[in-house]
Amino acid sequence: MAKDVTLADIAAKVGVSNVAVSKALSGKPGVSDELRIRIKQVADRMGYTTSASGKAAVAETGNIGVIIPEQYYGYSLSFYGQLYEKVVKALYDNKYYGILELLVREDEQEGNIPKVLRDGKVDGLIFMGQMDERYIQKMVSQSELPIFFLDTYKPSIALDTVISDGYYGTYLLTDYLIRYGHKKIGFVGNVEATDSIADRFWGYRKALRENHIEFESKWEISDRSKYGKTGDKILYGRSDLEAYVCNCDYTAQIVIQDLEERGYDVPEDISVVGFDDFLPVGRGMEEDRITSYSVNMERMAEACVESLIKKIKHQRYIEGVQIVTGNIVWKKTVKKRNI
After folding, report:
1. Is residue 55 part of a domain?
2. pLDDT of 28
3. Cβ distance 279 to 286 under 8 Å?
4. Do 170 and 291 reside in the same domain of the chain?
5. 105 lies in a domain?
6. Which of 16, 34, 260, 334 is surrounded by the fewest CB atoms within 10 Å?
7. Are 180 and 330 in contact (CB under 8 A)?
8. Are residues 173 and 273 located together in one domain of the fold?
């Protein structure tokens, strides 16, 4: 029972002295913030109660922290801004509230624990978007709170995560272009920037291989830096390709503008497809123009939230990677070629 848990039990579990546990639970100085958090979380998990009040050391807050790298977040104008809104809606439907914290690059590089976790304001955490592998590893290994990731995938780390089907989605888009008579097809995206872009690249390569089209290295075109900043211009000079598979609609939009500036007509001369079926508001392109793979953001958010809540409540949930499929949306940027 909870009343039987002692400071010595907690100390043995964490691997520290009884004095360190006492200082951490009483709020006294002498232990680091990280150790204090860890001790409090372990005490809570073990059901420790103070002798004075008989109440649990840490009560449920009803809050979930949502951590997003600041470079990806742009309120409702961005993909992650809209995905966050759907996460908040899913949390509210399950009687929880979301607390947003933007992860600045310095904290990510230094491995600093999110403030909502340090302050003990949340029952669990959702990390959204691509982050440094060392930072993810630290969060997974050091946090005693339940964690889920959303639109994040690291093959080298065992994560509970929900992602879109980038591999198969891009395979379908590329195969669609090939069936429409295109053979010289480029891929636009920096595979070093995110694992999701890498997945999309290999889906593209699978479609080429299955259709006996030999890939050429010059067909791989970067659209951004390794830190995720997309360039204002992607294509330079004349194009000898018949189509472009872009890792997202935002990149597809820039590719289309670059082609049109060089006198090409899309799709009369060159076809272009994107991914996500999402463009930031006010980007100067028709919403129904770019043929794309629609990501089911609502279902991704629901799956992540529902699984995290089950994890918090120590109920069975789907561990590891959950993949949410989408579908191709046929619009105006692809034209059939004579085969």
Report:
1. no
2. 67
3. no
4. yes
5. yes
6. 260
7. no
8. yes
Sign of the C-alpha dihedral, residues 114, 70, 78, 230?
Answer: negative
User: pLDDT (tens digit, 9 = 90+) per residue, 151-204?
Assistant: 998 888 889 999 999 999 999 999 999 999 999 999 999 998 888 999 999 999
Among 250, 230, 243, CA closest to 190: 230
Q: What is the CATH number of the domain that holds 20?
A: 1.10.260
CATH number of the domain bearing residue 120: 3.40.50.2300
User: The whole model's pTM is what?
Assistant: 0.78
Q: Is residue 214 part of a domain?
A: yes
| 5-56 pLDDT per residue, tens | 777 788 888 888 776 787 788 776 677 878 888 888 888 888 776 543 333 4
- CB 76 within 8 Å of CB 30: no
Looking at the fold, whether 282 and 200 belong to one and the same domain comes out as yes
State the residue range of the domain holding 41: 2-46
Please state which of the ranges 83-92, 231-240, 260-269 shows the lowest mean pLDDT. 231-240
Asked if 260 and 270 sit in the same domain, the reply is yes
The pLDDT tens digits of the residues spanning 136-151 come to 988 888 777 899 999 9
Give pLDDT, residue 52. 39
Residue of higher predicted confidence among 334 and 25: 334
- State the total domains in the chain: 3
Closest CA to 161 of 212, 216, 199: 199
DSSP output for 265-303: -TTTT-EEE-SBS---TTSSS-TT-SBEEE--HHHHHHH
CA distance 310 to 62: 14
Identify the three-state secondary structure at position 111.
coil
Does 311 fall in a domain? yes
